[in-house]
Amino acid sequence: MSSAYDPTTAPHALEALEIALTAERRALLEHDADALLSSTAAKLVALREAENLAPDARNAERLLALRDFNQANGILLARRRREVNWALRHLGRVESTGVYDATGQPGASPTARCLGVG
User: Fold this and answer.
1) Could you give the CA distance from residue 66 to residue 40 in angstroms, rounded to a whole number?
2) How many domains does the chain have?
3) CA 62, CA 65: separation in Å to the nearest integer?
4) Is 44 inside any structural domain?
5) Which of 70, 72, 88, 99 has the most crowded Cβ, counting Cβ within 10 A?
6) pTM greater than 0.85
7) What is the pLDDT of residues 11-55, one digit of tens each?
8) Which residues on neighbouring strands pair with residue 100, listed in sequence order?
């Protein structure tokens, strides 16, 4: 049940961004991966459109509210990611952390944990 966002029907870049953020939040709450992917893509399109807006005092307050909305979605996304990582860990799957070495460079290999011998 994804409510796809169409940037051509949004009258304003900030409205488009708000629509995309709302769809993203709904997808996170409903655990809808397809809707999350499409809303994230829509958010990126809306952000590109918003970057082209002329600086305007009226937009500043709305941008701050949208920033807070995006941060709240980020917190929810982080929670969902921890839940998935926890489930994968307990299923003995490969950890998603540890793929970077101590200097932050990619290349360290992930490790799997064996939960039992069978």
Assistant:
1) 14
2) 1
3) 5
4) yes
5) 70
6) no
7) 588 999 999 999 999 999 999 999 999 999 999 999 998 888 877
8) 106
Q: What is the secondary structure of 63-76 as a DSSP string?
A: HHHHHHHHHHHHHH
65/80 Cα distance (integer angstroms): 23
Per-residue pLDDT tens for 43-88? Answer: 999 999 888 887 777 788 888 999 999 999 999 999 988 988 888 8
Residue 82's domain comprises 7-90
The answer to whether position 63 is within a domain reads yes
Any residues with CB less than 8 A from the CB of 109 and at least 6 apart, and which?
99
CA distance 84 to 79: 9
In a domain, 1, yes or no: no
